Amino acid sequence: MTGVHRTTSSPAQEAAMTVPAIKIADLLEKAVVIRTKNAGPFMLTIDIFFDDEAAFEALQASGLITQERIAEAYRVPPASVEGIHFVPAVLGLKITLMKPAGTASGELACRDVFGAQQHIPLWTL
């Protein structure tokens, strides 16, 4: 047969094609609280809380929240992500990171002096 090209896929590749990817936006939509705030003039903390244990566990198991991905979303070096803490007792997640250089609270380049409007980059994960 000319003009026909068939490829074979492994069972894992076929399964990956049929299972929809988990999207961060779908998981974040299930959160009851998403907030950011300053943790001093040079640090930012992000809190995410759920009232549904399954949604919390899905986010934790998704692998979407990593030091590298948070760093990329917030445009800081990975070493600037100080901690990512899943806290099952309160169905919450806390992320702490250094703010980008030149954006300390109160500096001229700072567009959010309280750090309260910094949750949007999460949706890019």
Q: Could you characterize what this model shows?
A:
It is built from four helices and four strands, in the order ααββααββ. With 125 residues, it is an alpha+beta fold. The chain has one domain. The chain has a four-stranded antiparallel β-sheet. A hairpin with a 4-residue loop joins strand 1 (31-38) and strand 2 (43-50). The N and C termini lie far apart (44 Å).
From the alpha carbons, calculate the radius of gyration and give it in angstroms: 19 Å
Strand arrangement within the widest β-sheet reads 1-2-4-3
User: Helical proportion?
Assistant: 10-25%
- What portion of the residues fall into strands of 2 or more residues? 15-25%
Low-confidence stretches: 15-20
What count of domains describes the coordinates?
Answer: 1
Number of helices: 4
Distance between the termini: 44 Å
Number of strands: 4
Class of secondary structure makeup: alpha+beta
Mean pLDDT across all residues, rounded? 82
Order of helices and strands: HHEEHHEE
In short:
With 125 residues, the chain is of the alpha+beta class. It is 25% helix and 24% strand. The chain has helices spanning 11-18, 24-28, 53-62, 67-74, and strands at 31-38, 43-50, 81-87, 92-98.
Give a quick set of tags describing it.
single chain; 125 residues; alpha+beta; four-stranded antiparallel sheet; globular
Secondary structure elements and their pairing?
Blueprint: H1 11-18, H2 24-28, E1 31-38, E2 43-50, H3 53-62, H4 67-74, E3 81-87, E4 92-98
Antiparallel strand pairs: 1-2, 2-4, 3-4
